[in-house]
Amino acid sequence: MSETTVPVTRTAASAAAPVIAKSSTSRGRRARIALRTLQVVLALFYVIASALPKLIAHPSAAEGFDKMGWGSAGMYTIGALELAGGIALLIPVLQSVAAVALSGLMVGAFVVQLTYFDGENAATPLILIVPLALIAWARRRHNEDLLRLVRRRA
Description:
Layout: H1 12-16, H2 19-22, H3 26-55, H4 59-68, H5 71-88, H6 95-116, H7 123-138, H8 142-153
């Protein structure tokens, strides 16, 4: 080997680390900051703009759930799921799972928008799925950590 080459060895810990987190370049650092910022913005959206009106039974939320025939039980359930998902987006071991779960919730919201509201705001859930999918993919290595924690508890 020449003096300028360095042998590369991978340990089990480094193989499990997400690609975005491994980069020490300024580009990698900017990507980590951008991803974390996206997570915080989405978490704030889900907690404040989406879950809160449902959990406080704001008239605009209650009206929509009454129109669907789901009533307050459906409204509180969806609000609690959005609140849990928004908080979980900020917890490292739950980030990927939360993004997948919220994506599933958004698929349901899309179907509801088409079915009950004539597609009036159907684009919103589809738009939200894009950054959620990015978070789920970028943080996918955390799923191994979560699985280890669950197995340890079982």
